[in-house]
Each structure stands twice: as C-alpha cells, then as structure tokens.
Amino acid sequence: MGRFFITFSYDGTRYHGWQIQPNGNSVQAELQNALAILLRQPVEVVAAGRTDAGVHAAKMVAHFDTDVPFQTLQLAYQLNRLLPRDIAVGHIRAVSDEMHARFSAIARTYHYFIHTRKDPFVEQYSCMLGYQLDFQLMNEAGRILTSYNDFGAFCKTHTDVKTTICKVTEARWDQLDNHRYKFTITANRFLRNMVRAVVGTMIDVGRGRISMDEFRGVIESRNRSRAGESMPAKALFLAEVTYPENV
C-alpha cells in the first residue's frame, strides 16, 4: 500500500463545499469517483482542509492510499480528462506513509477579493462594495489579529470544534489596481467560516462602523454575534498549503 499526495484546484461555484454531502455534489465526491474509475477500486481522499459551499481553491492538497500500480504523470493526465472542467489536477507524487495532507500541513493561506466599482470581468470571483474603505485602518486591524490566538468570535456557531485557538501569522490588504483589492491571511489552522467573518469585521473597521478598540473587543469577546457579517463565498480562495521543507 502506498500513499500519494495530489495537488489540484477547483472553482467551487457548483459545489456544496469540499466534503461529501448527502444532498449535494462536492469536490471530494468528484475526485474520489474519478480515482475509483481509473484505479478500479474505492479510494478515500483526505484533504488539507474543508472549504465551504461556493469557496474556491487555487491550490488544494490531499492524500490517498492505494496498492494499485500507476504512473503519476499518466494518472494526473487521465484524471484531468475525466474530471469536470472546474476541477484541475496539478501533480501527484508518492510520499511516506507518515505524511498526512491535513495534519502534516503547517500553514494555510487564503485570499479574499473585493472591488469597489462595477466590473463584469471580476464579478464572479470578487465581492463588490460600493462605499469608501480605509485600508490603512484595515491593515492595522490585520496586525492586531496576529497578536491574538483565540478566534472564537469568528467561528460559525453550533459547529463541533474542540478548540478555537489558531496562530495567525499574516493578515493584510493589498491594492491590485485602482478598484480591486486582495486580502491575504495565513494561519496554522482556520475555523469554519473564519476568514469570511474576519473580512466582514475588518470592513466594519474600514467603514468607520467600529473603532480599533472595539475591534479588539470583538476578538476578546469570543462571541460570534459581536463580529461582522459573513462575506459572500464566491470571493474566497484557498491559495496555498504549506508543509515542512523536508516534505
């Protein structure tokens, strides 16, 4: 039995998230079904994380185990022919049995995109906000995020999580052009709906709805009802999964 890492990307628009769902299609189901057809045996795929419905991945990593011999380049080629157009496999490689796509990862990076004027060419993957934002204040809020480690205020309620402790190492806004902006956030782990709730709260800061002290108060409250709204999923991308250098 060998273990393999598979790197892939997907447009999450048509899917009910990464994880297999009883009443909706998922990226996991598509990938497992394609692998089962090609390897002629059931295959379980374990991903580095679980993206919610409508969220995209520019780079996702997963692992699967099989005792069926195959050539990695050929299997990647066959998967891309079999999978829908909105899922693309990058590469497959053998790893040691101790490696785990989720538990061996040391960091994940997400991007969230917004635009401030109507633009039909970014609408599908960006959130339009028709008001002025103070990105200097929003970046100050990002620096504040990195000084905390409990993000219960940004976790979706009624979820089965054992801890709301995360280590955020980066949280910043960058201007892409005169009306497009990108938020980058990196952490060792993320809570369900965390990034979209963080973005919604930072936008409240940028609009002047809450002060920096109030932003700190939201984090320290660990109360989801104190934080901002959850922003639309269509503008959120898993951008990178980081593993130790020896992987």
Q: What would you note in describing this structure?
A:
The chain is α+β, with helices and mostly antiparallel strands and 247 residues long. It is built from 5 helices and 9 strands. The chain is 23% helix and 26% strand. Strands 1, 2, 3, 4, 5, 6, 7, 8 and 9 form a 9-stranded mixed beta sheet that branches. α1 crosses α2 (72-82), α3 (135-145) packs across α4 (194-206) and α3 (135-145) runs parallel beside α5. The longest helix has 13 residues, at 27-39.
User: How many helical stretches?
Assistant: 5
- The secondary structure category is alpha+beta
Low-confidence stretches: none
Gap from first CA to last CA: 19 Å
Summarize the structure.
The chain is α+β, with helices and mostly antiparallel strands.
Name the features.
nine-stranded mixed sheet; 26% strand; globular; 247 residues; alpha+beta
SSE layout and pairing:
Blueprint: E1 2-10, H1 27-39, E2 46-47, E3 56-66, H2 72-82, E4 87-95, E5 107-115, E6 127-128, H3 135-145, E7 168-175, E8 180-187, H4 194-206, H5 212-221, E9 236-242
Parallel strand pairs: 3-9, 5-6
Antiparallel strand pairs: 1-3, 1-4, 2-3, 5-8, 5-9, 7-8
